[in-house]
């Protein structure tokens, strides 16, 4: 089949790898003028690394292995802990933190040089019984047997299917950075989640002397951005226990970026006819479980299995993909939205999640496809 993909992010490149390996003709259309090399780091749990292994993508030599996630109070007391290495021991795939740019580089490695067409912003989508067509803002078009919308939570393909207003703003936003911060944690295999009444802080080694750091604060889309956000973060969080003050002291405004949390209710049917969605285009969720990229990779893996050959009605197979993914993604999305970290009630997390329970929960939601993906 001839398959066109909107978006050259994690989902678009992962789907392209799967479908090219199955012998399909694939073209990817990306609105950015060139391949994106920046961005912060992503947590790739063992379900994600298992899918990457199945796609022939190795993370050897990049990023950092994560063996533990510990939750602390603002004054440094341990509230709860999760032994992430337990999942790696059980399923054979470790959890890693890797910059988005490096992950995209690994996903693109070995793909045809002319696969991705840049500077192509989708304006409209049309289809008939046999073909689907994207029209771009420059007046050009792309036509194929199937269209896969992998164009993120601002997806133009989703707007064509669902209309406007399906993605809602959550109540928190994140200031984040990926920086060379030389503290012990940067060179460890341990991630910290710290919560207090001022908000939340996350710290995660990302390899190569880099630390992925972020601060969650109350937010709404109508809020004005502070003129000096790092100064504001230092004022708000500077009194927290080590290593938060050290991170804030070493951080730079040049590394700082902001994104508001969003979510949409996962639908049982994502697509229509010869069109479907993957990743954030289908299931935008808050980052509280770190499963956004991992669920995107699972989407790509399942979709690839169901489009592995040319037999059968493409529309039927796309609906089968959506049906197969719905129970899994809707569960993870609900967990992400209802996670106590979203409520910022510090005592609740420790009371609800002792280490053994927390570890078991993470292993359950992050590994359901791990054994099948090899």
Task: Sum up the structure in keywords.
alpha/beta; single chain; 7-stranded mixed beta sheet; 374 residues; globular; 18 strands; D-Amino Acid Oxidase, Chain A, domain 2; 5-stranded parallel beta sheet; FAD/NAD(P)-binding domain; 2 domains
How does this model look, in words?
This protein is an alpha/beta fold and 374 residues long. The chain has 2 domains: 1-34 and 118-167 and 264-338, FAD/NAD(P)-binding domain (3-Layer(bba) Sandwich), CATH 3.50.50; 40-99 and 170-262 and 340-374, D-Amino Acid Oxidase, Chain A, domain 2 (2-Layer Sandwich). It has helices at residues 10-21, 46-54, 85-91, 100-108, 156-162, 229-237, 244-250, 292-306, 314-338, 340-343, 346-352, 355-366, and strands spanning 2-6, 25-29, 41-44, 64-66, 68-73, 78-83, 95-99, 116-117, 122-127, 132-136, 141-144, 146-149, 168-179, 190-196, 199-207, 210-218, 257-263, 275-277. A 7-stranded mixed sheet has the order 6-5-14-15-16-13-17, sandwiched between helices. A 5-stranded parallel sheet has the order 8-2-1-12-18, sandwiched between helices. Strand 10 and strand 11 (141-144) form a beta hairpin. Helix 1 runs parallel beside helix 4 and helix 6 runs antiparallel to helix 7 (244-250). The radius of gyration is 20 Å and the shape is globular.
